[in-house]
């Protein structure tokens, strides 16, 4: 264990009071302008499909509203679920007791940030629903289904670790929604500002979880590294794969236009643009794993190859 590095932790949150969204910035829930989208067409996988692009303009705009809902609901469920459950777990004196006190304290700030992201995302969703009259489709986010599946496959003793790595992956992924949405001038201001404020907070969280990973990984015995490492590609894909169930339900709302929504969705996720953006979004996490030597384990490396991720690291 590298005690020097850990005891030398300087809080990443020293300016939290003046920089955190919930501590220092207003709610992003402003007026909506006619003529602007509710989500970026470039970030909507469905709009990559020619049959969806050929749909009437009104339907395309509603599909973008649904894309916003899926993104916001993903945020609510992720922050309140695995990420904040991980903050609670790590904050316990019994779990990773080697974490410096200052790192344990910062978990309370991350927890607060995430709860606020959930509340503000939910409030924006409700405001857009009231303004547009478009009802969200009922769905259980894909990443939660995947977490349940990975959990069920493990003995209870490993489950906290699965959840911890689920959070490390989600906090170190940089998705297009966070980085590109704020820059798209065709999107409603409130949506862009919400994404920008969230991205700023997540920049710090990213640095924190990266630091945590660098300390944690070398402490894990090799067989445990192999076991958890082989799950990482599935965890990455749980976050980055488009939510096919939500997309299918969205299209099913327009039966006169989309006779076979499942076929259109199955074709959409195979499109090079959709697959390419998934791989792009995985890159920062893959780089972090490579820098810590994770891929020197042949079992882990093979698992990434199997899921089509490793060669892009
Ligand atoms: Fe967040
Ligand atoms: Fe976060």
From TrEMBL:
Domain of life of the native organism: Bacteria
Molecular function (Gene Ontology), one example: oxidoreductase activity
Gene3D superfamilies named among the record's database cross-references: Ribonucleotide Reductase, subunit A
InterPro entries cross-referenced by the UniProt entry: AurF/CmlI, Ferritin-like_SF, RNR-like
The name this protein goes by in its record: Aminobenzoate oxygenase
Organism for this UniProt entry: Streptomyces angustmyceticus
């Amino acid at each position: 264990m590298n005690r020097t590095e850990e005891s030398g932790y300087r809080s990443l949150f020293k300016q939290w009071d003046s920089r955190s969204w919930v501590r220092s910035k207003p709610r992003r829930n402003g007026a909506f302008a006619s003529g602007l989208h509710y989500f970026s067409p470039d970030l909507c996988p469905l709009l990559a499909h020619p049959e969806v692009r050929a749909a009437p303009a009104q339907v395309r705009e509603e599909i973008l509203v649904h894309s916003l809902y899926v993104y916001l609901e993903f945020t609510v469920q992720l922050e309140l679920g695995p990420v904040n459950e991980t903050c609670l777990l790590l904050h316990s004196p019994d779990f990773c007791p080697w974490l410096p006190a200052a790192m344990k304290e910062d978990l309370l700030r991350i927890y607060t940030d995430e709860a606020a992201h959930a509340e503000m995302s939910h409030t924006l969703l409700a405001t857009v629903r009231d303004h547009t009259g478009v009802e969200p489709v009922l769905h259980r986010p894909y990443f939660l289904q995947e977490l349940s599946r990975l959990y069920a496959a493990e003995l209870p003793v490993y489950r906290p670790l699965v959840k911890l790595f689920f959070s490390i992956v989600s906090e170190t992924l940089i998705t297009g929604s966070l980085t590109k949405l704020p820059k798209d001038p065709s999107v409603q201001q409130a949506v862009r500002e919400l994404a920008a404020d969230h991205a700023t907070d997540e920049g710090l969280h990213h640095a924190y979880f990266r630091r945590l990973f660098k300390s944690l990984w070398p402490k894990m015995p090799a067989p445990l590294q192999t076991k958890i490492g082989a799950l990482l590609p599935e965890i990455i894909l749980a976050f980055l794969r488009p939510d096919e169930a939500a997309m299918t339900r969205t299209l099913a709302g327009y039966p006169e236009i989309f006779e076979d929504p499942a076929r259109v969705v199955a074709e959409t996720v195979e499109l090079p643009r959709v697959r390419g953006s998934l791989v792009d979004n995985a890159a920062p996490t893959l780089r972090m794993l490579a820098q810590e030597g994770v891929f020197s384990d042949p079992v882990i490396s093979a698992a990434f190859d199997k899921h089509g991720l490793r060669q892009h690291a």
